[in-house]
Amino acid sequence: MSGDDRADGREPVFETGPRLALCALLQGADWVEFRTARDMLGVSDSAISKHSRTLEDAGYLEVRKGSVGRKPRTWFRLTPSGRDALRGHLDWLAQLRHALDPN
Fold it and tell me: Could you tell me which residue ranges the Winged helix DNA-binding domain spans (predicted)?
């Protein structure tokens, strides 16, 4: 995990902007193209760029750049540590929900 390796699973990097949604999208795929991620999340190019950089800096996201024909393309995928951090954060959220509403 990034930062201070929280034992409870909470990962603050997922708590700002569409980062959690981006990771949730990526958990079920190998590589996802930038435009697909942008369109599925309903955010701007600059928002995807900013949040993907934060996730990449945390070691949770791998970015691949290339081209299709003559058009540049960018693809994303979760790293193994990104998958682990996402799983831990989702478990933490489930525990929090249960603690707030045990029924």
Answer: 19-96
